[in-house]
Amino acid sequence: MRFPQIMIAPNGARRQRADHPALPLTLEELVATARACRAAGADALHLHVRDAEGRHSLDPARYAEALEALGDIEGLEIQITSEAAGIYGPQAQYDCLAALRPGWASVALREIARDAALAPRLYALCADEGIRVQHIAYDAADLDLLARWRAAGVVSSAQDEVICVLGAYAPPRPGHPDEIAGLLPHLAGLRFAVCAFGGREEACLAEAARAGAGILRVGFENNLTAPDGTVWTDNAAAVSSLRKCLNRRAA
């Protein structure tokens, strides 16, 4: 089995401290979580920042501050999100990327598709500025949209990285390992990652590893519980468990 990278998604856009006391919201908490997750075996971090009230933010200044604070964690790649989360429109997402010019960003296909005229500009910006794009696909229809955009030249051939999201946050729908087989025919020619909502997160990621996923994303953004149903103590515990699961399967 090819050994994939582990990415930690420690907070997401929607959860609050009431969901879990160890959910990192402040910059100091994010840095501490990142260090703990790196020590537990994480290779990358999917970064969301929050505003002063703890709400999802695409503020480039907040992102720049976080990227600087996280930059000295050796061996941990940082990916920002441009996720709208029901708050931002495509123009605000574009403006965030244009102002920040991060090394790596996730971009939800269906969110950018809300402005068909802006989509080519956004992907061209990323290509011109060397921003590595990870497309977010929530279902096969999103992957078909990506195929059409690649064929039309809206998305360049080099922008070939996608993360498949299994399940959903709202209304709650847990991901299931069986979903992966149905997505594989849509992933030809793409480098793919997987994340999953719900308690079968680790089983989904193990199946994704068998199917050839290059990145497995774990963490409190999508799931708070271990395979046995107990609540994770923190994000690092989820990383450690997934790392051990992959090591067992590789042995």
Please outline the helices and strands.
Blueprint: E1 5-8, H1 27-40, E2 44-47, E3 49-50, E4 56-57, H2 60-70, E5 77-81, H3 90-100, E6 104-108, H4 109-112, H5 118-129, E7 132-137, H6 140-152, E8 161-166, H7 179-183, E9 191-196, H8 201-211, E10 215-218, H9 235-250
Parallel strand pairs: 1-2, 1-10, 2-5, 5-6, 6-7, 7-8, 8-9, 9-10
Antiparallel strand pairs: 3-4
What can you see in these coordinates?
- There is one protein chain.
- The protein has 251 residues and is α/β, with parallel strands linked by helices.
- It contains 9 helices and 10 strands.
- It has helices at 27-40, 60-70, 90-100, 109-112, 118-129, 140-152, 179-183, 201-211, 235-250; strands at residues 5-8, 44-47, 49-50, 56-57, 77-81, 104-108, 132-137, 161-166, 191-196, 215-218.
- The chain has an 8-stranded parallel barrel with strand order 1-2-5-6-7-8-9-10, surrounded by 6 helices. Strands 3-4 form a two-stranded antiparallel sheet.
- Helix 8 (201-211) crosses helix 9.
- The longest helix has 16 residues, at 235-250.
- The protein is globular, with a radius of gyration of 17 Å.
